[in-house]
Amino acid sequence: MFEEITNEIKHTFVSLNTKRQYLFKCLFDKIANFKNNAILYYNKYIIIQKEIDSLFESINNNTITDIYILNQNSLLFQKELVNMFQRFYYQMENSIME
What we know:
By secondary structure, the protein is an all-alpha fold. The protein has one helix spanning 2-97.
């Protein structure tokens, strides 16, 4: 009888120990899964952040290039305008002199 009770207690402890091990294994699996998902989301965030930085850099470079071209075109237009005005002025001056 005493042996039966001892065996039953041992069996109960083995069963509880097995359940405890299974629960800890499930808990650590869940933690590892959350950790892996967090790493994946962080890596996606880093990739997206790099793409956004690259996009801003290209926009800035394109904008600077556009402003430079616009400035050059404006200078060219101003030079042409001055040349046209000078030709007009010389023509007017020559016509008055004649």
